[in-house]
Amino acid sequence: MDKRGLGSIAMSQKNRQFVLDQIPKGKLGTEHFRLTEAPMPSPGEGEVLLRVRYVSLDAANRAWMLGPTYRAALKAGDVMAGGALAEVVESRSSGFKAGDLVFGDTGWREYAALPATAVMKVMTREPLSHAVSVYGVAGLTAYFGLLECGRPKAGETVVVSAAAGSVGSIVGQIARIKGCRVVGIAGGAEKCALVTSQLGFDAAVDYKRFVGKPMEFYQALQAACGGGIDVYFDNVGGETLDACLFGMKEHGRIAACGAVSRYDGAPPYGVQGTPMIISKRITVRGFIVTDFFGQAAQALSDLEGWVRSGQLKVREDIVDGFENLPAALVGLLAGDNIGKRMVKVT
Ligand SMILES: NC(=O)c1ccc[n+]([C@@H]2O[C@H](COP(=O)([O-])OP(=O)(O)OC[C@H]3O[C@@H](n4cnc5c(N)ncnc54)[C@H](OP(=O)(O)O)[C@@H]3O)[C@@H](O)[C@H]2O)c1
Q1: Is the CB of residue 243 less than 8 Å from the CB of residue 224?
Q2: What is the CA radius of gyration of the chain?
């Protein structure tokens, strides 16, 4: 249990929260958010009162502003949505007690009262932040997206985009563990050097060197792959998806995980390579990580084993301070992060 306990949360205390003030028309900026104070929430029957510890920053946060996805669209005036690792400080549900750690969509606020059915208990492991990265949505997305949707076999070539990001950095390492040759696509020389020298990828391509040069990008990717792509784990969509479609081998598989290149005010882009899906008999499988939550126990056991054995290195990018949430999300979309970005609230 948190040493400060429930008694220290005076009901007169205010609850800081960020409201999404406007829906951005172009790129997201910090000016689209407004810091406000609300009264402390009080849990109703069947609810838990949560103290937010770490807020997960996700590329998808921006996609939720574009329209309905697998969740309702965010509207101007909403408290900014977002998943967080939080501690139960008061429970009015028999399934939870004060001190339990949970993950749930608390939104960007210091305290939240949520129905117990809307949060998941998480195992306490040190460091706590791993519950947001490798043992959280990022790790499970990488695990299930690669192994269930990409289905790589030892000896095959796996390509992953946003390779130095939270999902991508784990995807590449799992593919290596499974005996694949791994090529990362990332923005900038520093990220490319990191994935090869520290995370064990076989090669990396800096897509930013090839903006407006699709043929050169395709050629650089083919050279790095040495004969085509068996599995492409797509985090970005757009031009990168196109280069990979043209570079796929026959009967290749694409795990369609995300399209971050399209989330933040980019102009529409028409993918050119779709005929390749037919001529090369490519399987494209989209997924949402929650599809696989029923199998999470096995995934977490595998991920923990790989972390403990040193085969899987966890990269985290922890920004300190609740007030830095907007800038941290804007920075993530600009590619400032290496590994899993989150904001430590308390
Ligand atoms: N399907 C699911 O259930 C699920 C679950 C979680 C996440 N996701 C998806 O996974 C992807 C990664 O998300 P994340 O939250 O883990 O973020 P992340 O990869 O940690 O960070 C986002 C990264 O995207 C890259 N990026 C930004 N703009 C780009 C552009 N125009 N073209 C190419 N790359 C760009 C940046 O790296 P560079 O410096 O390399 O550009 C940035 O670091 C997203 O597409 C997200 O939607 C899907």
Answers
A1: no
A2: 21
In the chain, the N- to C-terminal Cα span, in Å, equals 14
Pocket test for ligand 1, best of 135, 167, 211 (most atoms within 8 A of CB): 167
Helix and strand totals (H; E) in the chain? 9, 15
**Beta strand pairing call for 283-286 and 316-320:** unpaired
- Would you write out the chain's pLDDT as a tens digit for each of its 346 residues? 444 445 456 666 899 999 999 999 999 999 999 999 999 999 999 999 999 999 999 999 999 999 999 999 999 999 999 999 999 999 999 999 999 999 999 999 999 999 999 999 998 889 999 999 999 999 999 999 999 999 999 999 999 999 999 999 999 999 999 999 999 999 999 999 999 999 999 999 999 999 999 999 999 999 999 989 999 999 999 999 999 999 999 999 999 999 999 999 999 999 999 999 999 999 999 999 999 999 999 999 999 999 999 999 999 999 999 999 999 999 999 999 999 999 999 9
CB neighbours of 232 closer than 8 A, spacing ≥ 6? 150, 158, 159, 160, 161, 241, 244, 248, 252, 253, 254, 255
Is the separation of the CB atoms in 176 and 200 below 8 Å? Answer: yes
Q: Please tell me the residue having the least CA distance from ligand 1 atom 9.
A: 258
CA distance 81 to 76: 12
Ligand 1 binding pocket (C-beta < 6 A) is: 58-60, 137-138, 141, 162, 164-168, 186-188, 191, 235-236, 240, 257-261, 287-289, 332-333, 335, 337, 341
CA angle 231, 168, 205 (to 5 degrees): 75
